[in-house]
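Researcher: We're teaching a course module on how sequence relates to structure. For the next exercise, students receive a sequence and then see the predicted structure as tokens, so they can try to spot secondary structure elements on their own. Here is the exercise chain.
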Amino acid sequence: MGDLATHSKHLDDDLAHFGAPVEVEKSKADLYVLPQNWAAVKALSTANTQWQYCKDGIELALDYARAEIAWRYSDIALTPTDFDKLQFLERTVIGLLRRPDEKPTEPSASLKV
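Model: And here is the predicted structure for the students to work with:
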């Protein structure tokens, strides 16, 4: 229904009944990216569906072969410096996903990168 469903009294009543907020909360945090880092951030966000996963569903790394296809279609050309920044962002994301202070939900071996 697209936009037709966004201003529906029935939908608002259903959302209120199940405890959902009637109005969508807007994020108060803005992300500022330095201009020299923009290509790496754009490349990472464009390739965000191209992660390699282990059999337990944990992100290991970006699959650069598939990511390059996404970059090509998005007309993103990375310089060697931009690629280094992209890999730094990738390692940072992996580190944040595998915080040592969080206990795994299931016992398994974890790979530290």
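Model: If you want an answer key for the exercise: Residues 80-97 form the longest helix (18 residues). The two ends are 45 Å apart (CA to CA).
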